[in-house]
Amino acid sequence: MFCPPSAYAAKCKGRTLMPWISVIIKTDSMHVEILSDAMLALGALSTDIHDSAAGTEHEQPLFGEPGEPAAGVWLAPELTALFKGDTDIPAVMRAAAEAAALPAPPSYRIEYVEEQDWVRVTQSQFNPIRISSRLWVVPSWHEIPDPNAINLILDPGLAFGTGTHPSTQLCLEWLDENLGGGEDVLDYGCGSGILAIAALKMGAHHVVGIDIDPQAVEASCQNARLNQCSETEIEFHTQMAERTDTERGGWANIVVANILANPLIMLAPILTHAARPGGRIALSGILAEQAEEVMAAYQQSFDMHIALNREGWVLLTGARK
Predict the structure, then answer these.
(1) Could you tell me the pTM of the whole model?
(2) Is 55 annotated for ligand binding?
(3) What is the pLDDT of residue 53?
């Protein structure tokens, strides 16, 4: 149902409703994930990606008949993002377009949504995620699937990082394979704190998480407490304190940053300065076609290469020279 806010309020007069706005965006397969991430970062309560032709004769199947090639991705995806009723949607769309490096906001429409039990709706979309044989991401309302594994207890919230996005999974897999124990770790752009908490649970000596968004820092602190992390072993801040532990600068054995390509390029001097000689860096939130440009920004100080890739996203890594 679509109607302007005043007409909607009048039509629903006499009923107690929560003012939700559903924004439906038509885009392409290259930008849909970036726009989805941007919507969550800009306050969306949830996002959903689907085929814009779903339910019609033009719906595109992702899996063909046996022996036929599968499409693998929707050619004309549609993104739905849910916001509170007082959200400035035009401003959100402008900011999302900028995050996706689009010259103008994509085509979109607005629908007003009646009240539902959004807690149950949201919870039904999140199940435990197995990252590796020893690492799971588990919402707090689910039973622990493997008591002998490392179980990160994490609920979806305003900050990015629930373990569902390919770039987050790539970072978790990389940490699982490369943390030997006893390392000092920097998680820049920590979001929900998922990577920082995972690093500590997997044996890091001390972890620092940085995010310019105070809400993300608060979410990270809450998630650290939820996972019973010691405040002496893990800390979160909105800016990084100046610190050098060697004559060449740098204190972190491991630097991980799961953001987006353009911010990672701009952050190259800061992240390089934080890594000690011989320390390793892992960068994600990068589309495959952006990998060369990001690697070029770090190549002077690191031996960079593509370590992992999934669904068009890559993880870059290298050792400090």
Answers:
(1) 0.62
(2) no
(3) 61
